[in-house]
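Open question from group meeting: does this chain pack into something compact, or does most of it stay loose? Before anyone orders reagents, we agreed to write out a predicted structure and look at it together. Recording both the input and the output here so the notebook holds the full record.
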Amino acid sequence: MNKKVVIFSGAGMSEESGINTFRDTKGLWNNYDLLDVASLEGFQKNPQLVLEFYNQRRQQLLEVSPNQGHRALVGLEQHFNVSIITQNVDNLHERAGSKNVLHLHGELLKSQSSENPELVFDCQTDLTLQDKCPKGSQLRPNIVWFGEEVTLLDDAIAEILEADILVIIGTSLQVHPAAGIVAFAKPDIPVYYVDANPSFNQELSELSNLTVINNTAAKGVPALTQQLISEFITLT
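Structure tokens returned:
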């Protein structure tokens, strides 16, 4: 049976595709207070601002493409059982061809009812205050905002628990509770951390058998996937 590789990706995974990160010093996020556009309170206070903000992000997403890091992960599926857990709300993993992707923090190309988060719809165009769900409630971005429950957290932990190899890509591991899931990895499994500016929180520092690849996702991930595939072919 193929070994299970679990990928845990963050903003650095998509940065080279042109997606701005929270901590970017330029671009969309720099023009807003995070709580104004990424909290339920912000949405209730000024829904027009929030909808416009995510409309901009959605338009940006539709103009960019997966990078070599995204594409390299697809090649792993020929040799491993691959699951991707991502903190990113873009669909670049899927557009590259990855088949098993879990979005912890929601999806930019979906909307949801502001009254019932289980009512989720595809959303490829701008959201307006006139857009309602079939039951009449205002549609909002399908994004897990600050203070909201990460409903897929248990599913993500279940994936981590089954991993034979864990690959962490492009995340500072500062956003909780998502960042804490790496602590659920089985002891002594190989753990790889690909990041241009790696940082080490408590969970990461306590992982054994950790290999740090100090590089961007677009450069570091293709090299790592080739290494893993070569090792797999050698072992079989």
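Observations to bring back to the group:
Residues 217-235 form the longest helix (19 residues).
DSSP finds nine helices and nine strands in the chain.
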